[in-house]
Specification:
Blueprint (H helix, E strand, L loop, with lengths): L1 H33 L3 H16 L13 H8 L4 E2 L2 E2 L6 E7 L4 H9 L1 H9 L4 E7 L7 H12 L4 H10 L11 H10 L5 H8 L2 H16 L7 E5 L7 E4 L3 H12 L1
Parallel strand pairs: 3-4
Antiparallel strand pairs: 1-2, 2-4, 3-5, 5-6
Helix pairs in contact: 2-4, 3-7, 5-11, 6-7, 6-9, 6-10, 7-8
Length: about 260
């Protein structure tokens, strides 16, 4: 009996080792996908920051622009809360962002649209925005306002319009007036409700919670991405990557 018990214990140890090795291989493959274009990503981000730095300062509540561009990008795609795409999509791409972050703005204009058109619109994936507030104290009310807009099915319109009207990173432009102008441009129907909810303890706590989640995943900057799908093991961190790598990660998570 003792020999049989020893064999069973060795077999269990071998199986555990094989499972750990498989998990390690999975993580390595995912990291390879995420970092496939790391040098290109750095170059793209640098160019986008320079381009956006040369644009107007934004943050003007009296002049909200690019509403039609955002409506065209999102037209016909279902959304719930801050999740854009078909609820039954197999893969979820999560963006951890800060509405005051200029790199997030650049991604929203140049990197995210191709992902929406190629993967979200056809139902292959859905994309969820989660707040990761790292810029300054104004990042929290901005993120809370986006969540409140999402309660009325206009969260992604709010996010994209905010980014396209974003002010200078160090400017203090996130006022009630500016947020309301963005909400109205985003098509939020009940502004009084939105105004109450964006200030609520529950929604402010949600902003703090997703920020803690991003830190727990080891993220240190925005935007950072993670992906989950049937071929994965829960929510797997990607970091900051460019559009092609995001699409490849979605395909990889789908299996």
């Amino acid at each position: 009996m003792s020999g049989r018990k020893d064999r069973e214990e060795r077999r269990e140890e071998r199986l555990r080792a094989e499972e750990e090795a498989a998990g390690g291989d999975r993580r390595r493959r995912l990291l390879q996908v995420a970092s496939a274009a790391v040098f290109l990503t750095a170059a793209v981000v640098l160019v986008l920051i320079v381009v956006n730095a040369n644009k107007s300062s934004g943050g003007d509540a009296s002049s909200i622009q690019h509403v039609d561009t955002v409506e065209s990008l999102l037209h016909g795609i279902p959304q719930r809360g801050l999740t854009l795409g078909e609820p039954g999509a197999k893969v979820t791409l999560v963006e951890f962002g800060d509405l005051k972050c200029p790199v997030c703005k650049a991604f929203s204009e140049e990197v995210i649209p191709p992902v929406i058109e190629s993967k979200v619109r056809d139902g292959s994936a859905k994309i969820e925005f989660r707040n990761f507030t790292i810029i300054d104290a104004e990042s929290t009310p901005a993120g809370a306002a986006a969540i409140a807009a999402g309660k009325q099915g206009r969260g992604w319109q709010f996010i994209e319009i905010f980014y396209r009207n974003q002010g200078n990173e160090t400017a203090h432009y996130v006022t009630g007036e500016f947020l309301m102008a963005v909400a109205k441009a985003a098509g939020v129907a009940d502004i009084a409700r939105w105004n109450r909810e964006r200030k609520s303890t529950r929604i402010l706590a949600e902003v703090a919670k997703t920020t803690e989640e991003a830190e727990g995943l080891g993220f240190e900057g925005t935007p950072s991405f993670a992906v989950s799908g049937p071929a994965g093991e829960g929510l797997e961190a990607l970091g900051t990557v460019e559009a092609g790598a995001l699409e490849a990660a979605i395909d990889h998570a789908a299996g």
